[in-house]
Amino acid sequence: MDVHPIVDEGLGNTAWLVDLGDGRALVVDPARDPTPYLELARRRRLRIAWAAETHLHADFLTGTRELAAACGAQVLAPRASRLAFDHQSLDGDQQLDLGGLTLRAVATPGHAPEHLAYLLLDGGRPLAVFSGGALLVGGVARTDLVAPEQTEPLARAAWRSVHERLLGLPDELAVYPTHGAGSFCAAPSRGGRRATTIGAERAANPLLAAGDEDTFVAGLLGGLGSFPPYFLRLRARNQAGPELLGPDWRVLPTLPPEQVHELVAGGAVLVDARPVDHFAAGHAAGALSIALRPQFGTWLGWLVDDARPLVVVLDDDQDRGELARQCRTIGYDRLAGELAGGMAAWRDAGLPEHRTPLTSAERLGDEPGTVLDVRQASELAEGRLPGAVTIELGALAARAGDPSWAGPGPVTVMCGHGERAMTAASLLERAAGRGVRVLRGGPADWQAATGRPLARS
């Protein structure tokens, strides 16, 4: 048995392809784009025979239906998921013969009420457990993605799942979680490792060190931060079954500037995915800056309504297929197209253009005004500029038109590197029409430039 990770760095998730040793493979928690699983199986001369879901995912659209259509994989899912597409339903303790190996479903509610982990056995000997969100490297997955009134009951269920169903497994048993470092489903998580063992988590997982259920629940709920609002939509779409991707799903139609201008006037969202310095040098008035990088999809899902058509601005050398993949993975299927000819064509058409100045950490200390830090609360706890106003980027859209948080003078927006700060600046430009600057770099750059300590809380 060989287990191969397929990692989505942006969402912080890992799907697992298991070589079952007889020319067939099992995939656990695949995302919507089937390409990486099919290509890995082809390279290893395997046929994907089963595609298993541990729960109804909130952070990405499942790819089990795509694998069923592409290679005839049998979809496995918790019975309580009540999927509306073809699948084999499994209950806790139910076993499935994989042709020499056995897959046992383990009821592990917590991250989701229907959650199953999957224990792979050779005869009676455990080989691996695929834990989904029931047990992570250094934590367990959050329990507040179903309904507010279920958050604490699910946290208590997570305690029971870990202590009654998982910690009784052998210490040397390999654990393969779906959620990991960088995932907003992980609450909390640590390090960059994607896999672990039962013994390693028993020894070092802070939540498992809790001596009783109440302490565990308090630790879990105390670590919950914010999450993208699209999380509240995808469970239902995964239950219904995501629409199958067509053959040209990666292709972005090209749209002339005048048509883009009309679409935006009619309610479409214009997202500029170019690097920060290119956006700063000139962008279409009203464009939202979300630089194309692994986290593009997360911030798109946080800030853009998926019911509105999406038009993008890209540089010639950027990967259109990657942008489409990230959009489709989180259910953004209304991709109207991209601006043909990029910003050069927009300028030639005489359409409105704005610029956003960049500033350095060296200059920041000499400039008056308000510093706005848009990082997550967990990042702010590690250090922030003294006197900075702090509003998470995900919360800024609702407050962008309210000037009460800003003092006199210019506003300088900062994050850890500059990408989120430029997104925030574009939100402020659209909502308030005020000029803003963006800091290149983050708190460490300011500390190095000024020699002053960061404020900590």
Question: What distinguishing features does this structure have?
Answer:
457 residues; alpha/beta; Metallo-beta-lactamase, Chain A; Oxidized Rhodanese, domain 1; 3 domains; 6-stranded mixed beta sheet; globular
How would you describe this structure to a colleague?
The chain folds into three domains: 2-240, 4-Layer Sandwich (Metallo-beta-lactamase, Chain A), CATH 3.60.15.10; 254-354, Oxidized Rhodanese, domain 1 (3-Layer(aba) Sandwich), CATH 3.40.250.10; 358-450, Rhodanese-like domain (Oxidized Rhodanese, domain 1). It has helices at 35-43, 64-71, 151-166, 198-204, 213-222, 231-240, 257-265, 276-281, 296-303, 320-329, 342-348, 361-364, 377-380, 393-399, 419-432, 443-450; strands at 2-8, 13-19, 24-28, 47-52, 74-78, 88-90, 95-97, 102-107, 116-122, 125-132, 174-177, 196-197, 254-255, 269-272, 283-284, 288-289, 310-313, 335-339, 353-354, 358-359, 370-373, 389-390, 411-414, 436-439. It starts with a strand and ends in a 7-residue tail after the last helix. The protein has 457 residues and is of the alpha/beta class. It has a six-stranded mixed beta sheet with strand order 1-2-3-4-5-6.
